[in-house]
Amino acid sequence: MTPTRYVAPTAGSPLIGLTGRRKRAAIMAAPQGFADAPIDVYFAEFATSVQGAGALAVHLPLDGDARALVARIDGLVLVGGDDVDPRRYGQSPGPFTTVVDPACDQFEIDLVVAALERDIPVLGVCRGQQILNVALGGTLQQHLELGEGESHGSYAYPRAHRVHDVEFTEGSTQAAVYGTRTRVNSFHHQAVDHPGDGVTVVGHAPDGTPEAIEVAGTSAIGVQWHPETFGGDPIFEWLAHTASATAQSTRDDNTQEVTR
Fold first, then answer.
1. What structural domains does the chain harbor?
2. Per the record, a Pfam family (predicted)?
3. Which DSSP symbol is given to 225?
4. Whose CA is closest to 177, among 210, 202, 150, 198?
5. Which SS3 state, helix, strand or coil, does residue 15 take?
6. For residues 193 and 140, is the Cβ–Cβ distance under 8 A?
7. Between the N and C ends of the chain, which has fewer C-beta atoms within 10 Å?
């Protein structure tokens, strides 16, 4: 894996919020009496990637107030995880549905709504792309079979191993970031089915599976792979740059308001 290209953030760097997962302390071999204590868990590579692009990373607790949190950040990353509750998009859990977390779903949907209202950049990764689509009224393919197409849900490879290409739509934000195509890893058994309001699929795997989305009129995008594992992936530079521009615009607006 290529080492992350670290750019030291400063006090004026954009602040990027990262979602996590609520677990029990038993997963970290907590001592007796604390095994059932709730803990928040975050994948370190997201923070490393964000900070490597010159932004500041902050973890967002599951029981935080979504609107209040979004009011203080300049960008949002929705990370991977288990399935979105199918009832969120009008379906029932199927035979391959993982354990779902309705509270997590609601929190992340609230974050999406608040972020879009504030017009800050959003990067949805894997499940994060799926929750972005569902938040806007879209649906998901509930299960992609192993051994078919690109066998997207296989865990046979190391997490940073790139197994298939993604081809992007000309003129899309992600085409500007990656070019016409990039090679990605793959650890998802679900994918975008019907796009939500304003959502456009801008990247496909060779088997036709939707791999990248963008929300019209916003800086919200999603990817179905895990760019945080690669070290220095350009999507985080896009996020930091866009968040910085948004933050500067907000500061300029506030300055103008004060001087009136």
1. 15-259 (3.40.50.880)
2. Peptidase_C26
3. S
4. 202
5. strand
6. yes
7. C
| N residues, the chain | 260
- Higher pLDDT among residues 253 and 233, named by residue: 233
CA 196 – CA 99 distance, rounded (Å): 24
Q: Would you say 133 and 199 are in contact if contact means Cβ atoms under 8 Å apart? A: yes
Q: What letter would DSSP give residue 53?
A: T
Q: Which two tokens stand for residue 119?
A: 């017009």
Query: With contact defined as beta carbons under 8 Å apart, do 75 and 120 qualify?
Result: yes
Q: Tell me if 122 sits within 8 A of 135, measured CB to CB.
A: no
Residues 129-179 have pLDDT tens digits of 999 999 999 999 999 999 999 999 999 999 999 999 999 999 999 999 999
Question: Which residues neighbour 172 within 8 Å (Cβ) at sequence distance 6 or greater?
Answer: 200, 202, 203, 212, 214
Nearest 10 degrees: Cα torsion 5, 42, 222, 56: -50
Convert the pLDDT of each residue in 188-203 to its tens digit.
Answer: 999 999 999 999 999 9
The tens digit of pLDDT for each residue in 110-121 reads: 999 999 999 999
The catalytic site residues sit at 126, 226, 228
Task: Answer with the residue of higher pLDDT: 247 or 243.
Answer: 243
Q: What is the DSSP string of 119-174?
A: T--EEEETHHHHHHHHHTT--EE----TTSTT-TT---S-TT---EEEEEPTTSHH
The token pair at 140 is 């998901």
Lowest mean pLDDT across 26-30, 96-100, 237-241: 26-30
Answer yes or no: are the C-beta atoms of 140 and 92 closer than 8 Å: no
Cα 36 to Cα 23, 27, 41, 103, distances in angstroms:
9, 10, 14, 18
Task: State the pLDDT confidence band at 252, using cuts at 50, 70 and 90.
Answer: low
